[in-house]
Design brief:
This protein has one domain. Helices cover 78% and strands 0% of the residues. It has 5 helices and no strands. By secondary structure, it is an all-alpha fold. The N and C termini lie far apart (38 Å).
Length: 127
C-alpha cells in the first residue's frame, strides 16, 4: 500500500511549509516592480518543503513531498483568488504550481542524495 508507514507529522509539516513558501513568494511578488524575476527565483524556495519533509521521514520522502505539494496546491489556488494577491490566469497559475511541485520533489531528492552520501562517507571511515 502506498501510504503504509507514512509519517503524518512530516506530511502535515511539508504541506504547511509549502503553503507558507507560496504565501511568502506571492506576497513578495506583489511588492516588487518586476514580479517575473521574483517568480522565477522564488521557485527555488519550493525545494525547502521537500527537504524538510525528507528530513522528517526516512521511509517515503518522495511520496510525502509530492503528496504534501498536491494537498497544498488547492489551498494555494484558493489563496490566489483573494483580493490582496495579484491573480493571473488559471492555466498560468497551474503551470507555476506544477513547477513548484517539481522543485519540492527535487528538494526531497537532494536531501535523499546527501543522506546517502553522508552514510557512504561514514561507512568508509569505519573501515
Amino acid at each position: 500500500m502506498l501510504l503504509r508507514g507514512v509519517s503524518w507529522n512530516a506530511l502535515l509539516v511539508g504541506t504547511l511549509v509549502y503553503a507558507a513558501v507560496f504565501i511568502v513568494i506571492r506576497q513578495f511578488m506583489t511588492l516588487q516592480t518586476d514580479p517575473d524575476s521574483v517568480m522565477r527565483l522564488g521557485l527555488l524556495l519550493f525545494a525547502l518543503p521537500g527537504a524538510v519533509t525528507a528530513l522528517m521521514s526516512r521511509e517515503n520522502p518522495l511520496t510525502l513531498a509530492l503528496l504534501g505539494a498536491l494537498l497544498a496546491t488547492p489551498v494555494c489556488l484558493a489563496i490566489t483568488h483573494m483580493p490582496f494577491f495579484s491573480a493571473q490566469g488559471f492555466w498560468q497559475e497551474m503551470a507555476w504550481l506544477s513547477s513548484a511541485m517539481f522543485w519540492c520533489v527535487m528538494g526531497a531528492l537532494t536531501t535523499m542524495l546527501w543522506r546517502e552520501l553522508l552514510w557512504l562517507h561514514r561507512q568508509r571511515q569505519l573501515r
